[in-house]
Amino acid sequence: MTTIPILKFGCYWRIGDGSDVKVLTDKWIPNHPTNGVIHPPKEEMQDWYVSELINQDLKEWKNDLIVAKFHKEDADAILRIPLSHRQASDAITWLHTKKGDYSVRSGYHAARKFKKSEEMAETSMGPFGVQVWSKLWKLRVPNKVKVFGWRACLNTLPTRANLVKRKIIHDDVCMLCSRESETGVHALWTCAVAKDV
Predict the structure, then answer these.
(1) Which domain holds residue 182?
(2) CA pair distance 98, 130, nearest whole angstrom
(3) Are residues 133 and 72 part of one domain?
(4) Are 84 and 59 in contact (CB under 8 A)?
(5) In a domain? residue 185
(6) Looking at the 3D structure of the chain, how many domains does it have?
(7) pTM to 2 decimals?
(8) Which residue from 37, 55, 60, 196 has the highest number of Cβ atoms inside 10 Å of its Cβ?
(9) How far apart are CA 82 and CA 60, in angstroms?
């Protein structure tokens, strides 16, 4: 097993001035599922850096911009990130220890988690699952659509039901219809309000 995917799996960016961190593709939001933006903003900009969300003179978040551009859950999580009042650079931090320092023991546990998630992805639903993944990865659609489909099949999307399981929020009721728990199946197939949006 190579170490680079494990290190990517186990690290996230601690924000300094935000100039090295991409808003949509990097992991930079602590205590948030996937440590990244869950709900992509309506105006998607690929080369959007976190520094554009920070008032560099005052060393504070551009509150109005963040609230306007991001889903409430992402905006709240971003605005909770403390910013340094000195001229600090962005730094890569290890997720699996309290102080953010890598240790052999935490690296071993991260490698086991990473391997388990890979095996789950490869073997989900047995031989049928392998056929599904094979067809999914061969589709002529953007990679982010393939990844979304893969995550939907594994039930790892940040639905409200999954966020409640991870103790990130307390209420799993669908915000659109307010009738049922927002599971992956509900969000993608059965929510009557979502079908009309």
Answers:
(1) 119-196
(2) 37
(3) no
(4) yes
(5) yes
(6) 2
(7) 0.54
(8) 37
(9) 8
